[in-house]
Queue: 2 jobs
Job 1
Amino acid sequence: MKLDRRSFVGSTAATAALLAAPAAIGQGRPRVVVIGGGAGGATAARYIARDSKGAIDVTLVEPTRTYYTCFFSNLYIGGFKEVADIGHTYGRLASAHGVNVVHDWAVGVDRAAKTVSLAGGATLSYDRLILSPGIDFVEGAVEGWDVGAQNAMPHAYKAGSQSELLRAQVRAMPEGGVYAMVAPPNPFRCPPGPYERICMVAHHLKAHNPTAKIIIADPKPKFSKMGLFQEGWADHYAGMIDWIGPEFGGDKVSVDPAGMTVTIDGEETGVDVCNVIPAMKAGRIAELAGVTDGNWAPVSAYDMSSKADPDVHVLGDAAQQGDMPKSGFSANSQAKVCANAVRGALTGSKVFPARYSNTCWSLISTENGVKVGASYEATDEKIAKTDGFISKTGETAELRKATYEESEGWYSGITADIFG
Amino acid sequence: MRKRRGRGSAGPERFGDRVRMVRFRLVLVLAAAIAVHAGPRPAESGDADAGRQAFDQCKACHEAGAGARHGIGPHLNGLFGRAAASHADFIYSGSFLRLRDDGHVWSAETLDAFLGNPDAVAPDSRMTFDGIADAGARADLIAFLQSIGDGTGMALLSGSAEDHGIDPAVLAIEGDPEYGAWLSGECTTCHRADGGDKGIPSILRWPVERFVIAMHDYRNKRREHPVMQMIAARLGNEEIAALAAYFANPAE
Ligand SMILES: Cc1cc2nc3c(=O)[nH]c(=O)nc-3n(C[C@H](O)[C@H](O)[C@H](O)COP(=O)(O)OP(=O)(O)OC[C@H]3O[C@@H](n4cnc5c(N)ncnc54)[C@H](O)[C@@H]3O)c2cc1C
C-alpha cells in the first residue's frame, strides 16, 4: 500500500463517475469545493456536509485514496505502530455525510470564474473554496538537496511511502552507523516533530544498534519542548545524540545525496541515513490560486478566509494565521471555525464566534509521553494565544504513561473527528 | 490498532485527578497483595469490607445504597439476578444492549468474568474501566456488591460531591444544546463522539449536573488536568451549561 503521487494523477474514470451524480442532484444547492483531504480539509468537508444536512453540495478533492497521518508517523518509525495503524480512507465521508470525494489533483484555481481545474481534465465550480493542501518544500533550502533526492535522503515529512523508506533505512543501518537529520527553520509543520523523530530513531537504535550515532544540524537556537526532549535524550539515549545548533554551525549545511555526506560548517561527514527536512511553504495550489504572500497564505482570524479573497478559505499548515503551531490539531480546530462560517454564509445558519485550541503530544521513550498546548482567540490582527501549558521535566513515570495513553486517545478521537 | 489502556482505575477521575488515581491504584495493589497472602479464594468468600474500599473506583460513575440514582453509569442497587441493560430509565451503550439481547444476567459468575476483562465481555462500551486482574480483589468487590442488596439498608455511596460549592443558580442554568453543539467541536478532537474511551474518557450522556460540576471544578482548578483546566478556563457558566445539555443527549 505505497503512496505514489503520480499514479493517482488522471484517475479520470472515477472522477467522471463521481462528478456526474452531484451535478444532477446538486442543482441549485450552494457548492463548496475543498482541496486537500488531510487534517484541515477532511474535517471541513465532514462538518459542512454533516451539519448542513444536504443543503450544501460538498466536493473534496484529494489525490490519495488512503491518507497516512503524519501524526503518529514518528511512532511508526520507532516501531510503536504499523503503517496500517496510520492509514485512513474516505469511505465514511462519502457514505455517512454525502461528501463527493474526487481522487484527483487540483491543478488550477480561477478565482474570477470561481472554478477549480483538475489534472484529470474536469472543472468544478464553487461558491466557496477551501484550501487545505498542507506543505511543500522551499526550493534550494538545503544546498545539494531537491525533491529528486528524496529517495536517497528522505524527508518523511509527508507520511506514507516516505515514512516507510525512512524506517527501512534506519533498520538497515550498519552497526555503529550514523543517522543525520537536517532540521528545518521556523515556521514549519509540527514544531516538536523532528525532535520526537530523534527520540523514535534513538529508541530503535538503542535496542538494535546501540553504538550508532545521531547528529542533528539545526538552524534554530531553540526548539519546541526543548527542555523535555533534552531531558529525555540524556535519560534514555545518553551519548547517542549530538545536537548542533547555529552556535556551532548547524545553520551552515550542505548535503551530497550521491556520496551520502553531510557538511556542517565546512566539516564533511559520511552518513548512513540522512533525513533532510527542508524549509517549508504552503502547498503549491495555494500559490497557484494566488492567495499566498511569500511562503504562506494570510487569513482572517475570524473565519480563516483568505486576505486576498473572502470566498476562499485556507486552513492548516498552508495558512498564515498568527500564533497557532502548524499541527493536525490546529488544522482540525480551524476547520470547524471555517465550516461554521461557510455554512452561515451559504445557508444563513447561525454563526458562532471563533474559538481555537491545540495540544501536541510527543513520545520520548516507551510509555513516556509529554505534551504542550494552548488556547487562542481571534483578533483583528491574528489568531492570538491566550493561555497555555507544557509538561514539566522530572515528572513521574506514572504521569508520563498517562500522558502517552492520552495521546493514543487523542489519535483515535481526532481521526474519528476528521474522517468520521 | 491494538487497544492500550491504563490499568486499575476507573471513572472520569482517571483523567481528571492523577493524585486520586494513584491512590486508587494503591488501594488495588494493596487489595491484590492481601489477596495473594490469603491465597486464591473462590468468589463466595470475598471480603465485603475490602470490596467496599475497591468500590471507590466505581463510585465516580455508579451510585449504590439508599436513594441511589443513575449517574454517568446506572445505579447498582439490586444488581444480582437482573438482566444486563435493563433499567428502562438509563440510556445504555450499544455494547450493553447487545449483552442484554444475548440474555446476559448479572450473577457472581458473570460479574467475575466482566470485572476480569470488561473489554472481552462488553467491547467498546462507554465505561472507562480496564478490569481487575486479581481474582481475590474481584471476589472482594463482588462480595460487597452482593451486600448492597436493594440498597435500602445501606447509606448512599456516591461520587457526586455534595460540597462542590457551586451556586445553585449556576447549576440551574438551562443550557442551549445548539450552542453546545457548536462548542462541542472543541471537545471531540479528543473525546470521541461515539463514546469510545481509549486513553481519554467518554463524556457522552453524563447527567447534566455531574458534567457542570466537573467543568466548574476544572475551571476553579479544584480538579487537575492541564488541558481540561485550559479549556474550562475560558468557558462561561452559560457555555458549560450548553455543553452539558448537548452531551447529555448528543446528535448522531
Ligand atoms: C512527523 C510529523 C509528526 C506530526 N505529529 C503531529 C502530532 O502529533 N499532532 C498534530 O496535531 N500534528 C502533527 N503533525 C502535523 C500535522 O500532520 C499537520 O499539521 C497536518 O496534517 C496539517 O493538516 P493540513 O490539512 O494543513 O495538511 P495535510 O494533512 O498534509 O493535508 C493536505 C492534503 O492535501 C492534499 N493535496 C495537496 N495538494 C493538493 C492538490 N493540488 N490537489 C488536491 N489535493 C492536494 C494532500 O494529498 C494531502 O492529503 C505532524 C507532522 C509530521 C510531519
Note: The domain at 42-148 of chain B is CATH 1.10.760.10 (Cytochrome Bc1 Complex; Chain D, domain 2).
Job 2
Amino acid sequence: MKRTLSILFTAAFLIGPGASQAAEEWGIDGEKKARFEAKVVDVLCELTGDCPADCGSGKRQLGLLKDDGTLILAVKNFDIFAGAADDLKGFCNKRIVADGLLINNPKMPLFALQYKKLAPDGKWSRANQFGKEWSKANGGKKAGQWFKNDPRIKKAIAEKGVFGIPGLKPKK
Amino acid sequence: MKKLLSALTVLAVAFFTVSGAHAAAAGKRVTVTGEIVDTWCYVTEIMYGLGTAHHQCAVWCAIGGIPVSVLGEDGNVYVVLKVEEDGTNVANPRIINIQTHKVTVDGDLYERDGVKYLIVTQVVDDKGIVNLTHEEYGIQPFGK
Ligand SMILES: [Cu+2]
C-alpha cells in the first residue's frame, strides 16, 4: 500500500519542472524504460479499418505503430489516473519519439507514455495533456486532484456510491 | 491470348497480395463473460483492482481515459474498443456506466502483439456489480 501511494504521488506531484526528459522508474513489476520512434495510430482504425477523422480527436484509444509492425497500446500518461489519448491525438498518423515505460506483464504488455516529441527532432513535452485540458475545461482548477473535483465523477459517486451499489455505504 | 491471360493472372495475384497485406483482418467471433475493470490498475497490481473496493478508482481511471477491459472468467484481459454502435472508447459514458459490472458480451476479438482487443457487438447480459470486495479491501487506493 505504501508502495502504491509512492508510485501514484511520485508520478503526479513530486517531479519538478526541471526533471530531465527521460523516462523514470515507477517501481511497477516488469517495467523497463523505453524510448522509440513510432507512428501514432487509432487502434480501432488500425485493426478494423473504421477510421474517423483525426484519429477520433481524443475519443479513440491510440497506439504506437513501430516500423517492424509492432502495435503498442498507450495505456497511461503522466497524470494521475489518466490515459494518453490527449497527448497523442495531435500527432495522428505522424511519427513521434515516445519515451516512457514498457511494462512486460504476463497478462498483457502495457505502455505508459511520459514524454513525447515529433520525430526526429521536435520539442520534448511531458505527457500531461489530460491534466492541462481538464484544467481548461474546469475554470483553471489545478489538475493534481482532478479525480476528486471532476463533475462527472461527483455525479456518478453521488448516484451509486463509492462501491457502485446505491445504498451500500462504507462503515464509519 | 495465353500471354494476355498470364499477364492478367500476374496482375491479379499482385493486386490481391498488396490489398491483402493492407486490409484489416477479420475478428474472431467470441462470447466473453467477466468483470469490467480498469486495465492499468488490474494489470499492474499497483493496488487491489477488482470489485466494489476498486469501483471508485475504476471510474476515475475510465473518465481519465485509460482503456477499460473485460476480465474474462478465463483469466484473459479483453481491452474494449467499441460497445455496440458507439465507436468511441475514451471516457465513454456507456462503458463507465457499467464499470465493475459482471457482463456477458458478444464481440469480435482481435489479437495483436500480446493484447486481446474486443469489439463488443452486443451486451447480452448485465448482472450489475456482484464482486463484493470492500469488506476485505476497503476503498482502493486511499481508503476514501
Ligand atoms: Cu485503481
Note: Chain B touches chain A through 56 residues (CB under 8 Å).
